Amino acid sequence: MTDMAIEKALQVEEEEKLLPLVVEIMPGHAAEGLIDIYEPGSYTAKSLRKLCDKTLNRKNLSIEERLIAEEIKRQLEGGRLLCRGRDTDGTAVEYAVVEETEAGEKYLYVPVRAIKPQEGGY
Amino acid sequence: MQRLFDSSQQILIRSHDVYLPLVYDPHIKEEVQGCESVPGESKSIVRFAGVYFIKSFDIFSLVRNYRSLAPRDYERLKREVFEKYRLTPHAHDALLDEKLKILLFRVMPHFIRSSKISFAGRRAKKEGVLDTIGERLHVPERYYRQAQDFMDTRQMLRSLKKIEGKKRFLQPPGDGMISGRDFRQWLYRALSDRILAEQAGGLKRALSMRSQFQEVKAKHLAALMYITDTGKLEIDGFGIIRQEPGKEYLVYKRTGEYVLKDYYARSYRFPDCRVAVSTYVPNRPMVLDKYKHPFLNGFHARQEICLKDCTSPGEFSAEAIIRGIEDGIAALLYGYDPRQRNGYHSLDRTWVHLPTIDFEDYRIREKTEAFHEKRAD
């Protein structure tokens, strides 16, 4: 890797650290879930699992969010949280990808799924 | 029956029943005398003006069932009525059947993202399902024209006004003798009345249905008409396919590619497939495509996924469909236990390997492994 390439990669890494983090917990294979937004710096070194627990314990949910939370709870009975097929033990940044809002604002996005195991076979 | 109507043959009307002349011969004489001797029972054979008549049919039943008894004659009469009153046949079918409504407005929103993330309000204003459909489905131009015609109710209102202004004719012929031709005239008037009443009912239902869509934009209506016509759609990996005949549907969600590991932690990349349930049996998810997987018995299309427990209740509902699809996808992606090898087939070849379904072509080979294999060649 050339010096310039290394410098660019570091610059991108630094820029990403300044982005807000959006964690979305979806029940099963639903397209939408519970969302929480973390300001830059507030999520560094925290495990994704811890951030998910915080989201799941949130109060003051809207009616729609309450329905989603109930479905997540149902999935987690015997189930677990997975992010891109992996457990949520690592830091949130490890799982994040950069996305943009319609207004062009960048953010780090972490999709988490609450999956109830469905045993197949015999 | 047509010969009867075309003749001057006399028939007897009594209490809305038609009595036809009884052919009287020595064989029937005894039977007739037997009927006459039973007092107090409603008689199927009566004597009028010295002639025996036998009870044949109820006149209102004839009117109600004439369409089935003489379909060609009925259609001809219907055309004459439409011509006389200058009516236009309208399609009175519902725009969406009940199942399709549930699939579009309650099942699809679960599987499709309808709004983007916004920092202002956590999530931007939710698009309606119709907005989502309208934007992501390519609807041919002619459906936009059909949508405009659909909402133009002027002709329907004119027709309905015309029909309702007509005097109704429902009086049955009085008791007594009547010729076949006169009876036919009465019958056709009764049938015309019935046709007009049916047309009025159909127009009212059609107008009522159109009033439900008054607030719907033309582009949304066009999309709904397109879906009703084709009986299928796919948006963001979620799809619906109507099964002919009847109003049952297959509802599916694509899995995307995914990776499973075998007993030795080697990875296997599985291609995308469609996991579907039928609205007829929502608790039996299947893979629509030609596919192989440890939980599928063979390597062909439309295989039911082997599940231990499906949480979907058996009867059709939005929840049943969602649960059925979720269970199917969860089984394929997360249900295989490489230690237990809990499927019809094992990912890795075991020492008691039976040549059934093989997954070697899905293996993701590590670079070093590939290098050693190449050297061995």
Please give the structural blueprint.
The complex is a heterodimer of chains A (122) and B (377).
Chain A: H1 3-17, E1 21-27, E2 34-38, H2 48-56, H3 63-76, E3 80-82, H4 92-95, E4 97-100, E5 106-115
Chain B: H1 2-5, E1 10-14, E2 17-21, H2 26-36, E3 45-48, E4 51-58, H3 59-69, H4 71-84, H5 98-111, H6 129-136, H7 141-151, H8 154-164, E5 176-179, H9 180-212, H10 218-230, E6 232-235, E7 238-243, E8 248-254, E9 258-261, E10 267-270, E11 274-278, E12 286-287, E13 303-304, H11 318-334, H12 367-376
Antiparallel strand pairs in B: 1-2, 1-5, 2-4, 3-4, 6-7, 7-8, 8-11, 9-10, 11-12, 12-13
Helix pairs in contact in B: 3-4, 3-9, 4-9, 5-11, 6-10, 7-10, 8-9
Concise synopsis of the structure shown:
The complex is a heterodimer of chains A (122) and B (377). With 122 residues, chain A is of the alpha+beta class. Chain A has helices at residues 3-17, 48-56, 63-76, 92-95; strands at 21-27, 34-38, 80-82, 97-100, 106-115.
Low-confidence stretches of chain A: none
Report the end-to-end length of chain B measured between terminal Cα atoms.
Answer: 89 Å
State the end-to-end CA separation of chain A.
Answer: 51 Å
Structural class of chain A: alpha+beta
Beta-strand residue fraction of chain B: 15-25%
Which class of secondary structure composition applies to the elements of chain B? alpha+beta
**Percent helix range of chain B:** 40-55%
Q: Write down how many β-strands of chain A occur, each being a DSSP E stretch of 2 or more residues.
A: 5
Helix content of chain A: 25-40%
Indicate the low-confidence ranges of chain B by residue numbers: 373-377
